Amino acid sequence: xxxxxxxxxxxxxxxxxxxxxxxxxxxxxxxxxxxxxxxxxxxxxxxxxxxxxxxxxxxxxxxxxxxxxxxxxxxxxxxxxxxxxxxxxxxxxxxxxxxxxxxxxxxxxxxxxx
Amino acid sequence: xxxxxxxxxxxxxxxxxxxxxxxxxxxxxxxxxxxxxxxxxxxxxxxxxxxxxxxxxxxxxxxxxxxxxxxxxxxxxxxxxxxxxxxxxxxxxxxxxxxxxxxxxxxxxxxxxxx
Lengths: 114, 115
Known about the structure:
Structural class of chain B: mainly beta
Helix content of chain A: under 10%
Shape of chain A: globular
Order of helices and strands of chain B: EEEEEEEEEEE
Distance between the termini of chain A: 41 Å
Mean pLDDT of chain B: 92
Number of strands of chain B: 11
Oligomer: heterodimer
Largest sheet of chain B: 7 strands, mixed
Mean pLDDT of chain A: 92
Low-confidence stretches of chain B: none
Low-confidence stretches of chain A: none
Number of helices of chain A: 0
Structural class of chain A: mainly beta
Radius of gyration of chain A: 14 Å
Number of strands of chain A: 12
């Protein structure tokens, strides 16, 4: 069965520091991968997606992610974090062959300290 | 583009009441809409997948008679929580996508509190 693992429940970084959020997936077919961000009490906003092609994908808000098939990973990165980036981040794999369903990871809560 | 509107954002009602939540795609036609439930400090749990003009497909363990889904048009899906009880209190989020191989776009969610 398909699954997504986000090993870090919480991450705290200093403002201006770099960030990497880990995501590993298990999926038998071609993975369609997504990162979403959720601020408290709100819905999810799409940061970026990977369907095919270049394995380094650029998203909004200065985020990027790299698909590594050999490691079954799709880690999210940002070179310089701001206070406004504090939120919860969800990695998801899309079952596009089966009605576009998404399987989400458990999420990683990002805290930014001064 | 790809804006999804969810209404209401918050509902507080008495036990036994039925509550309807609307999900609209404002600037695109959504071939498929999804309904999720999110418990505090947890990830999203898919409840059902809704296609316009057909019956919703519910995930295992989700009560069809409790959570009624109607996808009346390509821009509107509704979730009705029937005879709601305190255990139905949760954050409900809808999403929509334009078609196959397209990302889902999410509404802002509905906080449902049953007293």
